[in-house]
Amino acid sequence: MAQLWGGRFTKETDQLVYNFNASISFDQKFYGQDIRGSIAHVTMLAKVGVLTNEEKVQIIDGLNGILADIESGKIEITSEYEDIHSFVEANLIDRIGDPGKKLHTGRSRNDQVALDMKLYTRDEIVELKELLKELMETLHGLMKEHTDTFMPGFTHLQKAQPVTLSHHIGAYMEMFKRDYSRLCDIYDRMNYCPLGSGALAGTTYPLDRELTASLLDFSGPTLNSMDSVSDRDYVIELLSALSTIMVHLSRFCEEIIIWNSNEYQFISIDDSYSTGSSIMPQKKNPDIAELVRGKTGRVYASLTAILTTMKGIPLAYNKDMQEDKELTFDSIDTVKGCIKLFNGMMQTMTFHKDNMEASAKNGFTNATDAADYLVNHGVPFRDAHGIVGKLVLLCIDKNIALDDLSLEEYREISPAFEDDIYEAIAMKTCVEKRNTIGAPGEDAMKQVISINEHYLSTLD
């Protein structure tokens, strides 16, 4: 078909060049945003007198008809067109004739695609925020349920001190709260309308850019036409935020994989979120957790790609920037899918409380509390540290926990121990006496859970 820009050219574009240049295969994803932007543009053109009211009505009716036909499947977006903008404009002209040729007055494909990408990204941020909110609500419910589910806390993947499952999950709750905040920041920072910037230097038509911005729910128009058409900071920021979300999902998935192992048996993943082996009938694999962990690298790659693409582009628009779309679309779809699946996996997971508590005991996570006990009985900390180290060696030799030593065995190493040592090193005691804000004690956790309850109630 003839191109909308073909007047300058005397030869047809080589088919291979055309295919390489075309973006219709992926930018058709924003047909809705393109039509919405065109309706706002036409409304503004009529307001400033560039179009008559009759032309405005004809064009908007035509655009709404195209939108309805796309969504009903009556018309199909095909590779006959170079991009989604060409598809919409050509179909409009076919439907309403000459008034359709006025659609593009006062704008360029440069500011048009910048607008479409912003509208699409903005819509997707809203969906991502909702998915994160749903995940945080799931985690919040688990936190409320497991304030007395004791488990080992780790450093260096070594059992360190006892915590609760509520406290452990709460760490990820904080991560996802930061992720949500980042998405809000990106939305606010990007929410300025580039339409009306033209190719790079504005236009001679008396456009009302404030009106266009208002019609499209932007905070206002962008203030430099060159930056408007060449800005992809918001894409970089979004891909960075999505990468950080995947960091958090991947870390949690790594722990779920470990917890699901035969050695730990902290959890059972529901059958609907597991698969078996084609050869080993006993296997139940944590495939969803592994895939989320694996897809993290895919999102990182998109961030690296857009940073690399943008680093050497002079002002203003260059065709390199067309590369922003596929990787952004893929990353958004990947992260949305990962959040949904991870949330479903968490909602259906079974936690084995007895195994978690036994692991905390057998890992000597209460050793620090045994040392604190001695300090409270007048033993210098450095001496107490050494005494408890000897107790741990004795337990390892006997293959028992500190809780299982007799009082005589305690007193053989230090006469400072009394009957109350067992209460002092009980998992419940070790956890619940840690009640400064942010600690795993029940009072501290109830305070944090209350804060989170209020936080979730304030989200959009």
Overview of this structure, please?
The chain has 460 residues and is mostly helical. It has helices spanning 15-21, 24-27, 31-47, 53-72, 84-96, 109-145, 165-190, 209-215, 225-230, 233-259, 287-310, 324-348, 353-362, 367-376, 381-398, 407-413, 421-424, 427-432, 442-458; strands spanning 150-155, 158-164, 267-268, 350-351. The strands form two sheets. Strands 1-2 form a two-stranded antiparallel ribbon. Strand 1 (150-155) and strand 2 (158-164) form a beta hairpin. Helix 10 runs parallel beside helix 12 (324-348) and helix 14 (367-376) crosses helix 15 (381-398). It is elongated, with a radius of gyration of 31 Å.
Brief synopsis:
The chain has helices at residues 15-21, 24-27, 31-47, 53-72, 84-96, 109-145, 165-190, 209-215, 225-230, 233-259, 287-310, 324-348, 353-362, 367-376, 381-398, 407-413, 421-424, 427-432, 442-458; strands spanning 150-155, 158-164, 267-268, 350-351. The chain has 460 residues and is mainly alpha-helical.
Subunit organisation of the chains:
single chain
The Rg value, from CA coordinates, equals 31 Å
* Fraction in beta strands: under 5%
What is the CATH fold-level name of the largest domain?
A: Fumarase C, Chain A, domain 2
Number of helices: 19
Extract low-pLDDT stretches.
none
Order of helices and strands: HHHHHHEEHHHHEHHEHHHHHHH
Record keyword descriptors for this entry.
460 residues; mainly alpha; Fumarase C, Chain B, domain 1; Fumarase C, Chain A, domain 2; Ribonucleotide Reductase Protein R1, domain 1; 3 domains; two-stranded antiparallel sheet; 19 helices; 4 strands; 62% helix; elongated
